[in-house]
Amino acid sequence: MDILSLFITVPIITVLALVFTKGLKKARLVSMVGSVIQLGMAINLVFAYFKERTVNDAIMVFTKDVVWYEKFNIHYNIGVDGVSVTLLLLTAIVVLAGVFISWKMNDLPKEFFIALIVLSIGVYGFFISIDLFTLFVFFEIAVIPMYLLIGIWGTGPKEYSAMKLTLMLMGASAVLLVGILGIYFNSNADGGALTFNILEIAQVNIPFEAQKLFFPLVFIGFAVIGALFPFHTWSPDGHASAPTAVSMLHAGVLMKLGGYGIFRVAMYLLPEGTLHWSWFFIILATIGVIYGAFSAIKQTDLKYINAYSSVSHLGMVLFALLMLNKTAWNGAILQSLSHGFMTALFFALIGMIYGRTHTRDIYKLGGLLKVIPFISVIYVIVGLASLGLPGLSGFVAEMNIFVGAFQHEDMFYRVSTIIVVSAIVVTAVYILRAAGIMLMGPVKNEAYLNLPKVTWYEKTGILLLLIPIVGMGVAPLWLSDMIMESLQPFIQGVL
Amino acid sequence: MDFSSFLLMRHEILLLAIILLLIVAEIFMPQNKKSSIVHLAIFLFGIHTIVGFFAIDESSLFGGMFRTDGLIHFFKNVLNIGVLIVLLQSADWLQEKIVQNNRGTEFFILLFSSLLGMYFMISSGDFLMFYLGLELSTLPVAALAAFETTKRESSESGIKLILSAALASGVSLFGISMLYATTGSIYFNDIIEVITATNLSILGLILFFAGLAFKISLVPFHFWTADVYEGAPISIASYLSVISKGAAVFILLILLFTIFKPLMYIWENLVYVIAIATMFIGNLFALRQQNMKRFLAFSSIAQAGFILLGLMTGNQLGVATVVYFVLVYVFSNLAAFGVVQAISLQTGKENMNDYEGLYRTNPKLSMVMMLALFSLAGIPPVAGFFGKFFLFVAAASEGYYLLVFIAVVNVTISLYYYLLVVRAMFLRKSEHAIPFFKNKLYMRLGLIITVLGILILGIYSPLYDYIFDLSNNFN
């Protein structure tokens, strides 16, 4: 079996093994082992990728192509480039951290881990697909377990949030389906056979009329999961109701499918449509960035603060993608990674705070730095990364985005860039405000004086996510090189 | 005509033999072992299903009245599998409720006669055979719908079914007579050559279409569906929603794509509008249903709307995708009906809020239900997704992107109500959850077959290629 198919087979085997387990202890052990193997493979893939790159300069490496539905020319076609390798690594880390954070999942543990791993199968498959059909299949596999994960194990208005999230995301994927069919039936524009293969379609000159029609469908289909402004409403509710590990995985990984899909499918395959429509979506993305940031200021629930901050940060990803140059795109991918680690860590910490104090209202908390110093210090570090402090991952990403965005000289781009840049200030406000109220000052509730200590599994989960944040901030170059190199063929396709 | 050509009618002759055998068997069956008629019938029908898989030549009999080819043969096998699953799932109900009153044999005879009618209907080469098949397939089902004579709803549903079916077949017959008036023949092969778009032939086509639309329960001919499904025994409801609908779809497809092909520019618009209406009405009415049988009735109306998307092509692709979808639909819908049947049989409960907390007491049954609903909703990787996706491909291949868009909106609507059932089973906890029970062998077998179908049919791609090759007559 090739190195990439293992990314799907190992989780499938994990799920099958989980079916035969009984009780929390075995279930979490099995899922931990499965996720550790997966992380090992992801790290191995990074090295293998570097090695392969020296001898192979195809767009995608480690490809494998098996005919699936011959009549429709549907293939199981997989391969990776630098972008997908980094995103696979992100996924593997967040999933493993999620398993550690759910160490004490007492209610239906087996089912919880099964749903979690099934979700990860979808994500892994999505990142390695070259075929539009398989890509779409994995996309839906990644979305549907969320319904059960939020609905069964969530808190608050979980049924409402789960339904809203599922319907909005599945509705988006339905729109995406029409777009994909449109691309498919125009893939013979140059006289070839109809195909779902992304790399082959990219060589075809799809008629401008079709591009104009289908680009918004594909873009919106992916952008909803990437929390594009008017379609972001599922995200705050969903994240607030979801159990900790699911929030982590969802904000950390699942929302990245949107940006990745836009970059890989919408922009790469429909370049003229991209140019035609980009002004419109730039406006939406700009609103999203600023709207998310301002909404976060007003929230008192920690999870809502974070969810709106995700809307803002992912708006920045979409904004950067629409800038259509290499630096900005590099920033978009880096921002995806950085946000993935940061927000997963945020949600993990919020879960730990909530697990101890049973509230997420920042006004009921206070002085936490004195009682749970470890969690509080990490919270501050992540907060700083989130507002873009140099030396941490956020800075690298945002720097690239803004440098890229400033390369456009006309007025429209300038104004929108300035608006987006100013969101950083707002970000600082909501991060510092939350940290100040919650962590500093006197301890507001006497019951907080003897909160339980941080356990080993919580520390492991935190460290798994913290190391990449610091690593990306301190040594971004190797990552950035790897991404830049892979962006080359894509940016050429668009321009 | 030599005798061996009768072997082309192998399905029909074998089924007739089974019917007769069952009548004889009942005479010889001792009074205290009446229930073994169920075992015998299932055993015989199982053999019949297996024998059906042996290949058959493409040919016609009786001067073209009866014809068969690879695709028709395949579709008869699909119907067989469906009926076998229905039998397996209803075996316990039969033994508990029906056989005690000495009515087991009747049930099988009526059911098999109806199936025999469907064989003739889809094999028909002229309108006479078609009409005989249509009637033979409908009338016994009306008797079956009223089979639980002690229940008022059951009798009501029988009456409703027979009245609407009689009206439908009357309308159909009227349409056929008009077609005869314009073309001068009832043989399909003759009609293909002479049919043109005159007012009379278009009216004939529309009336004929309306008659079959009753059977498929397309909007606006769907009013009987929910009431009949609710009142009829569950096994009959599932038979109506899968087998009866499947056969009608198949013959409609064949006739539209062959003899009515010259009129395609007319029925295209008809199908377009009806598809949209059927999807919306089926889905919107399903949103508020509490009774699981009514729920599945409206869901199956909506599914029929999706099927129409495949008709928009008029070519091989359309035939293959529709037949594939029906095959997948047989498994998905029967899995859902099977769970409803199992629960109803054990506890008598049929409402959605009775299902609350089901996962915690009956995890396996809930999983089957969830897979079935996901397959009906079209969520990968289960088979229903592939079925729907291919139908959308078929419609998009002719450029009907707007129709596909409306269809995917409907997929999202339908997902909502399918998730309501999942919500009741998985998300809710209940004090009065249905207690744990074990299914008997037949029911378990019936559910396992459907689950295997749901899981495997989509991923196993050669099946679709096989169907596609079978339908090369429509190229």
What is the succession of H and E elements of chain A? HHEEHHHHHHHHHHHHHHHHHHH
Which two chains share the most extensive interface?
Answer: A-B, 33 and 31 residues
How much beta of chain A, percentage-wise?
under 5%
String of helices and strands of chain B: HHEEHHHHHHHHHHHHHHHHH
What percent of the residues of chain A sit in helical stretches (DSSP H or I)? over 70%
Q: How are the strands ordered across the major sheet of chain B?
A: 1-2
Please tally the β strands of chain A and state the result: 2
> What is the gyration radius of chain B calculated from CA atoms?
21 Å
Using brief descriptors, characterize the structure shown.
heterodimer; A: 495 residues; mainly alpha; two-stranded antiparallel sheet; 21 helices; 2 strands; B: 475 residues; two-stranded antiparallel ribbon; 75% helix; 1% strand
Would you mind describing this structure in some detail?
The complex is a heterodimer of chains A (495) and B (475). With 495 residues, chain A is mostly helical. Chain A has one domain (6-494). Chain A contains 21 helices and 2 strands. Chain A has a two-stranded antiparallel ribbon with strand order 1-2. Chain A is globular and about 75 Å long. Chain B is an all-alpha fold and 475 residues long. Chain B has one domain. Chain B has helices at residues 10-28, 36-52, 70-98, 104-123, 127-145, 152-183, 188-194, 199-216, 223-231, 234-257, 264-286, 292-311, 316-347, 358-361, 363-377, 383-397, 401-427, 441-459, 462-470, and strands at 59-61, 66-68. In chain B, strand 1 (59-61) and strand 2 form a beta hairpin. The model of chain B has no long low-confidence stretch (mean pLDDT 90). The chains are: A mainly alpha (495), B mainly alpha (475).
